[in-house]
Structures are given as structure tokens and as C-alpha cells.
Amino acid sequence: MDDDKSEEQHVIAAAHHLVKALKVRTSLSNEVRRTLADLDIHLAAMTEAKEDETTSLREIEGRFKSAQAKIMTLQSNCLKIWDTGPSDKLLEYLQNVEEIQNIIVSLESMMPNKNRKQNRLTNQAHSVLQIAMIRLQEEVINILAQSKQCFGHAYVSFHSCEEIAVDEETMVSIEDDSVEAISCLDSSRSESEEGIIMDLVHPGVVPHIKSIADLMFTSHYVQEFCQVFIRFWKDALHEYLRLFWMQQISIEDVLRMDWSCLNCRIKKWRQATKNVIAFYLPSEKNLFDQILGEFESVSSTCFIEASKDAMMCLLNFGQAVAIGPLQPERLFCLLDMYELLSGLCQDVDALFCESHGNFIQVEYHELLKNLGDSAKSIFLGLGNRIASNTSTTPFQGGGVHPLTKYVINYFMLLSEYYVTLRFLLEDRVVENSGGVVDALVRLDISSEFPCPLALHLKSIASMLESNLEHRSNLYKDDSLKHIFLMNNIHYMVQKIKKSKLRTCFGDEWIKEHIVKYVQHEKSYERKTWNSILSLITGYEKSGKAVLKERCRNFSIAFEDVYKNQTGWIIPDIELRDDLNISIALRVVHAYRTFVGQVRKSLSDKHIKYTEEDVEQYLLDFFQGSAKSLNHHWRR
Fold first, then answer.
1. What is the overall mean pLDDT for the chain?
2. Residue 300 to residue 284: CA distance in whole angstroms
């Protein structure tokens, strides 16, 4: 400013000097005349420019007042512009705001020697523009709120992770029926589903939101637009997560949850994670690109800011589950979570490929690794849990022990995850390629189970057999010991033979174990019936007294066996019938021959049970309900 005054003073001094010089001159040279003519032309041009600037300023002022009036009229309405009717009202508002923007550009491009009027107009225009920008922020939120589409659950695909509980005393089995139901998993669980882009807002409003964004960006209100846009979608995503009970939960709270509650939360987490990563976030990114696609880095930054909190909420919950107790009942949920995340790797890598979103990628792959490690640890530790599961009390009735049901049904469920288990046991790393299944397909997997998994399952089965052998030694009755082992080994064979595990264990293992339970069946027959049958054989040269004694001893022995072994149980009907037939063939035939000979020497009153009685009573064996024979002697 001081420089301007100094220059002006120099010009005034020069003019005074020129006037003074002209007063003393009576004639002028041609050179002086040309210089004075140039000066006259320059002064005329300056006067004309000043007049033009004044005229232009008046025109700008008129345009400003017109635009200002229209803006303030809409501004004073208590309703939002979008609520006042057709979208042309918003268009009119945007046109007038753009006019203010153009006026500011015109004013700031004028000569630097601004007068007061020019300064005043510039300040007023900036003030109106600021008011309009605040209003447009409100309009963006209002338009989004009114046009947001309902994002449903139509694209969820998952199977339930049922509980397998372990108490302090023993591993408690799950019912066969429920296990079969769990084994029949959703057939679509390993199919890759095409990503579906949903409209998060009504498509008709997208151009209007984009127009607001473009205007705010060119007005240098980038941050203001991004703030409201990010906040709206961040809140919308948290609201969506609440549908799945996925509010922020601390790791400590997750670790303190009882299993039934946590199991339910995990199911919800899987739903939420699948929907958010596969459908919601791609749809959100598509919307951000439609509106902010011309400003690529801004679009990417806004998307990451809007989604990172929700992603971290999901990932933190997953980490809390991954570091939880390594209990067997958690394995299937961990495998479900692992398979889900491995299948979504490609989606996550596409969504968060930018450098400023890379931390989400890193956290995601870290969670995937931790889930895999925990699942692997539980699986590899299962044998030790079986070995340490001991008891001092024999299992009543000699049926299929809950531990056997638990382990074999556990195997049935594991067979649904054999691809993933192979992946984990071979310490492979999920690449950014579509997950475990795709990666293993590329490894040329056959239908057979992989060797590491097969070996470990056989090892666990062997530990189970050893445990059962120890439990069988708790029985005082050797016959019951063989019934117990026969039942349990038969259960193992039948379950494995009819499942996917057959390929894993192999026909040789099945044959060997069929031989084992058949041997226990034969050992039972020898232990129980050889001594009894000896009472009714080898009697050909016996006298009446010996025959009477044999009749009496057989009846006593048969009653004792009947009382005990009707309380024993063979749950498998076919196995029970086969054993009953085998016993009947030996016992009834021998008894019929004996009774035929006895009747030659003794009356019927010495024969307590007829052949038909014995045959009928044998059918009561192994039903699990102890009975006593109350048969009176015939007179």
C-alpha cells in the first residue's frame, strides 16, 4: 500500500513538472507533440477502462442480488429444498449457487486496485456461498436418508454350527439324529457366489447427489462434502451391523461369554461378514465411485473412512474368538469362520487395495491365519483329550459309550471340512485367489482324503480304542467286557463305512475292525455259554440223580444269565438279532437234545423250562431292561 502511494506521488510530481515546463514554452517540437499525444491517448484509455469497470461492477452486482435473493428465498424455507417438490427446485438452487461461484471468480479476476464496492461484493458473495454450502450439506444427508434402500438378507448362505459340549466329567455326545442333520450341510456352502451390486439409494437421486458434490468440490468445499457423506454411510453400516447384533464388543467380553451365547454370536458374525464384504461394501464402493469417480483418490479415501470402523468391529470379534480356549466344540465354528474368510479374500483385496486401506487387508489376513492356527491346534489336540478322558466307573449296560459317539460323530462333521483340514495340516497359505477350495483344486485334489489327515484320524481312532479297552477292564464280568467292546467297535465301523470317512480310513481298516468286533462277539459266546452248555452235554451215561442235578444247575445258570444280560444292551438291532440267532442256534439245539434224553428217564416236573421257553427268553437278552424269571415248577 505504501508503494502505491509513493508511485502516485511520483506521478503527481511529474505532472506538475510537465505543466510548469509547458507554461514557459511558446512552441513545441514534433517529438514533444508526439509524446503529449501518446499521453493523451493513454489518459483517455484509462478513463474508458475505469468507466467499463464501473459498468461491469454494476452488472455483477445486479447478478449477485438476483442470485442472492433466490438462494435466500429457498434458504428461509423451513423445509429442505428436496422436500419442497420436484427436483427442479434443487436444480434451480444449484444454478444460483453456481452463479454466485462465477461472480466470485469474476470479482477476483478484476484489476487488483479493488475499490470498496468490489471488496464488499466479494465478501458478500463468499458469505452467501458459505451459507449455501452449509445448506447443501444438510440436503445431501436429507436426500440420502429419504432414498436409502432397504438392504435385506437374501444373499446369505451358511450352515449352522451346532454345539458339542464338554463338561468336567466326560465328553458328552450329541444325539445321532442331530449329528446327521448337521452333517447334511447347506450344499451351497462351498460354491462361490457371484458378487451382486445392490442399489443403496434410489438410482434416480444419484445424479442430484453428484451435482451437489461437483459444485461443492469446485467451490473448494471438498472436506465439508466428504464429512457428511462419510458420516452418513458410516452410520448406515453400523445400523446394518446391529441387525446381526454386531455392536462393538471387547475381546474380554467375548472371552467371558458362555458357549451357547458365543455360538449364537458367531452365527450372526458369519452372516454379517458375508453380507458386508460380499454385497454391502461392493455396493457402497460402487455408489462412491458413481458420485466421486472423477476424484478417484477422494472416492477411495471416503470409502475406506466410511467402512473401516465396521470392518474392524468384525475383525476384532473374529480375533477374540480365535484366541479363545482351544476346546473341541469350537473347532467347527472356527473352521466355518476360516472357510468364510478364505472365500472372501479376493473381495477384501479388491475393496482395500489402496495403500491407506492396506491395514484392513493386513488385519484380515492375520485373522485368517489365527483362525486356521487355532482350528489346527484343536484338531491335533483331540487325541490327547480322548486319552485323558478317564473314568473309574464302568458304563452301565455295555452299550455304545458317549465318548465313542462323541468322537465318531465329531469325525462325521470333520468329513465336511476335509479340504480345509488338509490345507491347514499341510501348512499352506491362502493366496489372493478365491480361498481354500480354489487353491486345493489347483493342487489337483482327488476324491481321496489326503494322507496327513487320514493318518491323524486313524491315530485318534486308535486312541479311542485304547480308551475303550481301559474302560472295558472296569467290568467284573468278562462277558460284559466283550459286549461293550463289540458294541463300540461295531458302532465305529458302521458309521465310518457309511460316510465320506470310508475313503479316509480305507477298506483294510474296516475289514480289520469287522474282524475285531466279530472276535468279541465269539469271545462273549464262549465266556457266557460254554460253561452253561457243558451242563447239558456229555450226559449220555449219567444216572437219574446226575440228570436231575444237571437240570437244576442249568435252570439256575440260565436264570442268572437271563437276569444279568437282559439288562445289558446292544443298541444296533441287526447286531443284536445276529447275536441272538447265533446263541439260539447253539443253546436251543443243545437244550432240545438234552430235554429229549431227560424225558426218557425223568418226568416233566424235573424240566423247569421247555425248549420253547428258552428260545423265547433268549429274545429278551440285550434289551437294556433287567428282568427275572418267575417260573414255577410244573406239578
1. 82
2. 11
Q: 457 Cβ partners below 8 Å, 6+ apart?
A: 411, 414, 449, 501, 504, 505
Long-range pairs for 513-518: beta carbons < 8 A, 24 or more residues apart = 513/489, 516/485, 516/489, 517/485, 517/486, 517/489, 517/490, 517/493
At residue 157, φ and ψ (nearest 5 deg) are -140, 110
Query: Is 77 in contact with 84 (CB distance < 8 Å)?
Result: yes
User: The pTM is what?
Assistant: 0.77
Once rounded to an integer, what is the mean pLDDT over residues 264-273?
A: 93
Helix, strand or coil for residue 399?
A: coil
What was the pLDDT predicted at 238? 92
Give dist(CA 61, CA 81) in Å, integer: 25
Q: Which three cell numbers stand for residue 403?
A: 465318548
- Under DSSP, the state recorded for 633 is P
Q: How confident is the model at residue 39 (pLDDT cuts 50, 70, 90)?
A: low
Please check the confidence at residue 442 and state whether its pLDDT lies above 50.
no
Which triple of cell numbers denotes residue 460? 485318534
Helix axes 501-533, 573-601, angle to 10 degrees: 10
Enumerate residues 6+ apart whose C-beta is below 8 A from 126: 104
In the numeric block, the cell 450372526 is attached to: 268
Which single residue is written with the C-alpha cell 442430484? Answer: 208
Q: 15, 139, 124, 20: which is closest to 68 by C-alpha?
A: 124
Task: Please tell me the distance from the alpha carbon of residue 136 to that of residue 133, in angstroms, as a whole number.
Answer: 5
Side chain identity, residue 612: E
The pLDDT value recorded for residue 206 is 93
Look up residue 532 and give its amino acid.
Answer: I
- Per-residue pLDDT band for 127 (boundaries 50, 70, 90) equals confident
Largest CA distance in the chain: 185
pLDDT tens sequence across 67-93: 787 788 777 666 677 766 656 788 888
The DSSP secondary structure of 235-248, one letter per residue, reads: HHHHHHHHTTT---
